[in-house]
What does this fold into?
Amino acid sequence: MLPDNVFITLADIEAARDRIAPFVRRTPVLTSDLLDEATGGRLFFKCENLQQIGAFKARGACNAVLSLTDAEAARGVATHSSGNHGSAVAYAARLRGIVAHVVMPDGVARPKAAQVERLGARITYCAPNQAAREAETARIVAETGAALIHPFDNLQVMAGQGTAALELIEDAGPLDLVMTPIGGGGLISGVSTAVRAKLPAARMVGAEPAGADDAARSFASGRLEPMDHPNTIADGLRAGLSPATFAHIRRNVDDVVTVSEAAIVEAMRALWETLKVVVEPSAAVPYAAILEGKVDARGKRVGVVLTGGNIDLDRLPWIRP
Amino acid sequence: MLPDNVFITLADIEAARDRIAPFVRRTPVLTSDLLDEATGGRLFFKCENLQQIGAFKARGACNAVLSLTDAEAARGVATHSSGNHGSAVAYAARLRGIVAHVVMPDGVARPKAAQVERLGARITYCAPNQAAREAETARIVAETGAALIHPFDNLQVMAGQGTAALELIEDAGPLDLVMTPIGGGGLISGVSTAVRAKLPAARMVGAEPAGADDAARSFASGRLEPMDHPNTIADGLRAGLSPATFAHIRRNVDDVVTVSEAAIVEAMRALWETLKVVVEPSAAVPYAAILEGKVDARGKRVGVVLTGGNIDLDRLPWIRP
It folds into this structure.
């Protein structure tokens, strides 16, 4: 694990932006008068669901894989992921022409595994818990010499994720509040670093499902609390923080709020009906926090990162089977 | 009906662009390496599914409604529409603070009617055929003095739709081929005028469902053929051409191709899985033509207008009930 006294900087994020620019999309920032009327704020949605591989994870993975030396890259890369980071590493490895090993939990959503396969990575399935994933990945790294591209506990990954905030701020202009979901904390580590540097007066708020609230508990107690038995539809947010991402959150983030499962589903549906974007449950969590009154958007210019759109449309959570 | 010897010009489209700029989105142009590999071309998708009201129709309606004099506007506007144009007129009328009357066919998709209502328009339902729609709209115009904003047989509407092509060409750069679907022909009238002026060497191709192929038959025969009993999932393409839109097609369009219903559904699904955009069946028709081999994209830079995304996600056509 990374130490908790090393922080990424704006310069790291700007270097990442230049490194990954040819390989990621500058995603649109969408607004909706209807959502503004409903919330009383002016909301700017950074549509990373339209990013390469359908999620912001392409940014961090590209930055990390493209930062490897040629000698390191020649032995390939490995990671574990519930889906989007696996696709992102596969995508980045394909760009670089190297092998990607992706460890995925049994029962992972079908479209996520299919996308990893389509991108040419080698998938290894394991039991659906953090320990099994890490052990299987460690075995592959030991056997092949592949470079581990951790989904969030990696400074290059955090810096890559932060590039989404640079674009959001450029396109939306000054913001009073910026929100992201929190899973392992890689995205908010990067985004909050960019926000602190570019918009010193803005509030930075993370949002989590109540059923996977390790970041909220850790933020409240000041100690890294374990994630036990996460229980949420937001499958991208079931990972727990690392010491390094928790340190970034403590330094840069003003609040961490939690939301109900019902609000997540309601937010997904509202974003579809107004913005015409389909996002995965994890991506709907910040807007769910506004819907549920956990964050007050009234009178504020609010930037929200819509993190991803990899969902099985055949199984939308608001449709009863 | 408009005469068939009056044509819109690039200047009309540029004036429309300036008039509507504050009120419509500059939608993103997305590309996908996977789709390029599948088709052998370089495809640029203009995402009008992310436009205000979820369809390019916002462009034409805004241009027409904002072009009215204050005296004309004061009596309101009226139109008939299977959905998207109705929302677009409601949206434009709300911007201008005037009443919109929208005539919709019985059985119209629920989300389309709901959106028109949410935008504050007055809906009148009628029998689901062109004659009933036109008669009901004429009655409202006679009673209220509202200005008729025809969905396609209106030069300001055509010019507004053409603004999508100006943006597509600016963002994608030179194109060898540009494609749109054809319903009543308003979109292709505007887009083809812009393409002829900006990209004189490019091919301009329209695509239709085989079950609503009046434009293809008219293009082949050189006479305006009637649309009888359209039978297609692409509910936005069931209208027939007008003399004016047919004249624009004859002047500006190189070919009109038709596609099967199965290809439309396959194209919708492929666009979702690769671009992460959900489009309505009508919008998938040009890509369906490439999938089905009706248009050869190999080695070409191809611009495709994805016309709209107003679909009921609870009833996706690739899911058996």
Summary: Chain A touches chain B through 23 residues (CB under 8 Å). The beta strands of chain A are 29-30, 42-47, 77-80, 100-105, 122-126, 147-148, 177-181, 203-209, 255-259, 301-306. DSSP finds 13 helices and ten strands in chain A.
